[in-house]
Design goal:
Largest sheet: 9 strands, mixed
CATH superfamily of the domain at 425-521: ANL, C-terminal domain
Strand order of the largest sheet: 2-1-11-10-12-13-14-15-16
Strand content: 15-25%
Number of helices: 13
Helix content: 25-40%
Radius of gyration: 23 Å
Shape: globular
Structural class: alpha/beta
CATH architecture of the domain at 425-521: 2-Layer Sandwich
Number of strands: 26
CATH topology of the domain at 425-521: GMP Synthetase, Chain A, domain 3
């Protein structure tokens, strides 16, 4: 496989994900690894020893149910301990965990199961019927018990707890193989069917080791996780990095503004990966003066509003395909506020104009990233050699589809997804440039700018906004346009501003701009 050549052992020769878990259980058996903090009921803790033992019993039970090396298993679960137990048990078998978005509709789940050729599934009571109908070819479906009031069995369903062997004595044994696929994570697929991004065991170890280094994670750290584990941010930046450092992961079902500080205080949270809506929610509320955070991660370094927390904030950029942060802020030296950071030492980064030449200071261009396939870059797009081949050029550079600006000081500013560039007459306009201005208008909670077709100018910008609670919507469009006129060239000013109750989403982190464009067309 790509990235594993004879005579070139790589950083993870003789290691895999089960090796890492076993090492942690041996070195820190009694240290808390996973703390489950549900919205109802008491928290539950798995030490490294307990988690390792439970994974072994589950792996033994899965093998009894016919799961072996290379078998893909659909893991369609919201955040819960069972998701992690299943993922690590499948890794121990040499099988593949196919982690899928629980907000997916039945047709999407059917696609995930069929495209990945899953042989079985693990899901939760509230989703079991959907999985049953969407994937009739599965051998079996195991159903957890963490949906209150919903039976833990379904058609073709077994209780997840019944999969466990009585002891871990019969846990599978195999030689570590870092080149073996271990995970499939599906991209959001806003304009086409999602692609299955294949991670090897070496990719998982890379995510663990490099993210831990970028974040300066330590054995005493407690990383609070609320983002969904079927995305690379929560899985790689938070959970796997914590495992590498030997720290503690506090897992919540999802974001809860009212519970955030309560959980953080109860369990001694020191590290959090924020996205915009969660950071804003925290900053708009009361911040405990004695909170234990020592650092946070976010899309940009040291945004001014985050100063209220009184701790450093490192920016970062990465994709499911890049495993870790290809661009990242520095930990202990000043960063450029608002920038995503500088090229990570473990990757090669280049920024090119449309003609393929490198950009100069102050210019915006297409972002390319290069690493080692199957180690620091994903192995392939599942069952799609054409898409895999087209993603890389002859020199191994991966086309990210993102546009970034090279600042005069060498830091990098995120501009937009390439597909979100507007063509207004002869001018290229980054939607994010307009959105940043719109977000300065008091009362605006979220903003998204898309292009509306125009008979003369190709397209013109139109803004969609959601508002903070209690804000009068009537004057907002005029205020947004006035702010844009004051800060932007005239061709960048939105021709219309639509106030909506909620943004359509491709994922928790991404607004579904294709849906906003459809609304403009009235389709």
């Amino acid at each position: 496989m790509a990235g594993f050549q004879h005579g070139l052992p790589g950083p993870f020769a003789g290691q895999d994900l089960p090796w890492l878990l076993a090492a942690r259980a041996r070195l820190r058996p009694d240290h808390p690894f996973l703390v489950w903090a549900p919205f109802a009921g008491p928290a539950e803790t798995w030490t490294y020893a307990r988690f390792h033992d439970d994974v072994g019993r589950l792996a033994a039970g899965l093998r009894r149910r016919g799961i072996g090396i290379g078998d893909p298993v659909l893991v369609h679960l919201e955040n819960a301990p069972e998701l992690l137990l299943a993922t690590f048990a499948l890794a121990e078998l040499g099988a593949i965990a196919v982690l899928t978005n629980t907000r997916a509709a039945g047709d999407e789940v059917a696609y995930f199961a069929a495209h990945s050729r899953c042989v079985a599934a693990v899901t939760q009571p509230g989703l079991a019927e959907l999985v049953h109908r969407a994937a009739p070819g599965l051998r079996w479906i195991a159903v957890t018990a963490h949906d209150a009031g919903i039976p833990a069995v379904a058609p073709r369903g077994d209780a997840f707890a019944a999969l466990f062997a009585e002891t871990a004595a019969d846990r599978p044994r195999r030689a570590p193989d870092p080149a073996l696929p271990v995970l499939v994570l599906y991209t959001s697929g806003t304009t086409s069917r999602p692609k299955g991004v294949v991670w090897t065991h070496a990719n998982a170890l890379w995510a663990a080791r490099v993210n831990a280094a970028h974040e300066d994670l330590r054995p005493a750290d407690v990383h609070q996780i609320y983002l969904p584990l079927f995305h690379a941010n929560a899985l790689g930046y938070s959970l796997l990095a914590t495992l590498w450092a030997g720290g503690t992961a506090v897992l919540q079902p999802k974001w809860s503004t009212s519970r955030f500080w309560q959980v953080a205080g109860q369990h001694g949270t020191t590290w959090v990966s924020f996205i915009w809506f969660s950071l804003r929610a925290v900053l708009e509320g009361e911040i405990p003066p004695d909170h234990g955070l020592r650092m946070i991660g976010f899309a940009t370094s040291d945004p001014p509003a985050a100063r209220r927390l009184g701790v450093p904030c490192i920016g970062w950029w990465g994709m499911t395909e890049t495993i870790s942060h290809g661009i990242v802020g520095a930990l202990h030296v000043p960063n450029t506020p608002g920038a995503i950071g500088r090229p990570a030492p473990e990757y090669s980064i280049r920024i090119l104009r449309e003609d393929g030449t490198p950009v100069g200071a102050g210019e915006t261009g297409a972002l390319f990233c290069r690493g080692v396939r199957g180690v620091s870059m994903f192995l392939e797009y599942l069952h799609d050699p054409a898409a895999t081949a087209s993603a890389f050029d002859a020199e191994g550079w991966f086309a990210t589809g993102d546009l970034v600006t090279l600042l005069p000081d060498g830091a990098i500013l995120f501009a937009d997804r390439a597909k979100d560039m507007l063509k207004v007459g002869a001018e290229n306009v980054a939607a994010s440039e307009i959105e940043r201005v719109v977000m300065t208008v008091p009362g605006v909670r979220e903003a998204a700018v898309v292009g509306q077709p125009h008979p003369m100018l190709d397209e013109v910008p139109v803004a969609f906004v959601t508002l903070d609670g209690g804000v009068d919507a009537a004057p907002l469009p005029e205020a947004v346009i006035a702010a844009c006129r004051a800060a932007l060239a005239d061709f960048k000013v939105p021709r219309a501003v639509h106030v909506i109750e909620e943004m359509p989403r491709a994922t928790l982190e991404k607004i579904a701009k294709a849906e906003l464009r459809r609304r403009l067309r009235g389709t």
